[in-house]
Design brief:
By secondary structure, this protein is an alpha/beta fold. It has 8 helices and 12 strands. Bound molecules: zinc ion.
Amino acid sequence: MLRLSNNEQPLEQRTQFCVRDDDTSFFTTPDALELAYGEITKWGPVSLAVVPFHRAGTSKGVPERFRGRWSIHPLHENQALVSHLRLGVAQGRFEIMLHGYYHDEMNHRPEFTGGEDLIQRVSDGRKYLEDLLGTAIRVFVPPRNAIGPKGLRAVVLAGLHLGGTAGLRKGWSPFSTRSWAVWRCLRSWRKAGRVGTPWILDLGDHREIPGNAVTPSSTLQQNEAIFQSALSVTGVFCAAAHYWELGSPSIHADQPTVGEQLQCLIYQARSNPQVVWQSVGQIVSESKRVV
Ligand SMILES: [Zn+2]
């Protein structure tokens, strides 16, 4: 019989697990989200990185018939999805995170690596989603996992945490002793031949939660090795996927589909009493597994 990650162990003695999904937007149907996460959210919450005003550029999350039109699509124009998300949040199945503002830029540059009005975009996008979906947002996930100093500054000014990692070249202050302490810790971990980053990174003015991509180019073995490394230090493991990609095959001939890889990781999390499954926002803001 399946052993659930219930209260057999005190919370502080369990590895923290979460699921992050990027790209929910005007273009998402409730059916697509349910197909991806209907079963999974029976076991634990899924943290959705939501785009408030998706611009129909070239992202794969944009349906082909809209791709390259560059029109702007506010989330509230998809009322069926709004109702579905509000219900899911109220039931504790979904957490809402902020995933850029427009997501796609006409100059094809990742939205939060430059530009002039990023502070406004974070502030307005957050308020819009919070009002529309009736929830509080704690985490910002940059489109294409790319951020720069201006983007990170906007996130910090809003009092949000980062889903993903910036690093010294992409926004950590080189004048902060915390930045260098985190950097040294990660360097010695890698020098010791360890994989992944199984902690929350505390940069003083914000925290970051590294994601482990579950995509066509990932392998189950690599993610399992990172999960094991998180278990070895009673750390943190965040699986990061896209609902629109779960049916895709792996680019590796010997690997299961993206969705099957995610299912395997989830099975390992929920069948292990040493693991507690929480939302991304709860882990990044409250975790004590911090460097
Ligand atoms: Zn995205």
